[in-house]
Amino acid sequence: MSPEEAEALSLREATQVLARLLYRDAADIEPDLTFWLLGVDALLGAQFVALLNAACGSDIDVAELDDYPTPAALSRHVAAQLTGTPPPRPLGERAVPEPRPVAAGASRAGGGRDDVLGVLREQLAETLCCDVFDIDTEATFRSLGLDPVLGAEFLDFVNGAYGLRARPAVLFDHPCLSALAAHIAASTTAVAPGPSAAWTR
User: Fold this and answer.
1) Distance between CA atoms of residues 163 and 188, nearest Å
2) How far, in Å, CA of 130 to CA of 126, rounded?
3) Which residue blocks in 84-174 are alpha helix, DSSP H?
4) Rounded distance between C-alpha atoms, residue 126 and residue 116, angstroms
5) Assessment of whether the complete model's pTM goes beyond 0.70
6) Which of 82, 86, 83 is nearest to 57 (CA)?
7) Distance in angstroms (rounded) separating the CA atoms of residues 2 and 176
8) Can you tell me the distance from the alpha carbon of 46 to that of 49, in angstroms, rounded to the nearest whole number?
9) CA separation for the pair 16, 24 (Å, rounded)
10) What is the pLDDT of residues 55-86, one digit of tens each?
11) DSSP conformation class of 80
12) Helix pair 148-162, 113-128: axis angle to 10 deg
C-alpha cells in the first residue's frame, strides 16, 4: 500500500468513526477542523482512537490527538505508521504565531490564583452572555454551556491575555474555572487584562 493510499484509507475510516460517535453524516465531518471544534471531548477522543486503531490496524495513543489535532493531520500520521514512512511533524512543533499582545491599559498582577480566577470568570460570563454571578467556579465548562465553538473563543482570550499557547485539551485537563485559574497562576506570570481586553460576542 502506498503512503497516499494509506492516507486515504485512514481518513475515510477516521471520518466514518467520527460520524458514528458524533451522530452525524460522514459528509459533514470537515477533515481540517480540530477534533475540539468537531465536538470530540476527552471521553469521545479515547473511544475514537480505540475504534480507529481497530479499523486501520494502527497503534496510536489518545495523547497524539494533541500533536495531530485534525482528522486530516491524524490520518497522515496513521498512514506513516502503516507504511513505515517517516511521520509528519506534529503541528505543535511547526511555526506558531506569536501570542496576541495584551490589550493596552492592562496592568501587571501578582499572578495569584484569585486574580486569575476573577479575570477568567468575567471573560467566561462575557463569552456565555450571562451575569458573572451565574458562573460557578467549580462547575465544569460543559455544564456551564461552553460548547466547542465558545470554548475556542474563550481559550483564544486566555492565550492572548496571559501570553500562552495552550491547546483545547487544557480545558479537559482543568475542566472548571477554579482548576484552570490555578494552572495558569502556577505556570505563568499572569497579566490581568483591563476592561478593554474582554471580548464581547
Assistant:
1) 8
2) 7
3) 113-128, 141-144, 148-162, 170-173
4) 16
5) no
6) 82
7) 45
8) 5
9) 9
10) 999 999 988 888 888 899 899 999 999 998 88
11) H
12) 140
Give the chain's length. 201
Cβ–Cβ under 8 Å, residues 131 and 161: no
Instruction: Give bridge partners of residue 108 from the DSSP assignment.
Output: 191
Q: Are 51 and 60 in contact (CB under 8 A)?
A: no
d(CA 133, CA 123): 12
Q: What is residue 198's DSSP assignment?
A: S
Cβ density class 72-111: b for 16+ within 10 Å, e for less: bbbbbbbbbbbeeeeebeeeeeeeeeeeeebbeebeebeb
CB 102 within 8 A of CB 163: yes
Give the cell for residue 183: 494552572
Could you tell me which residues are beta bridge partners of residue 107? 192
Q: To 10 degrees, what angle do helices 148-162 and 177-187 make?
A: 30
* Burial class for 195, CB neighbours closer than 10 Å (0-12, 13-18, 19+): exposed
Residue in the block written with cell 458562573: 135
What does the alpha-carbon distance between residue 67 and residue 141 come to, in Å, rounded to a whole number? 23
pLDDT digits (tens, 9 = 90+) for 99-139: 444 443 333 333 588 888 999 999 999 988 999 999 999 99
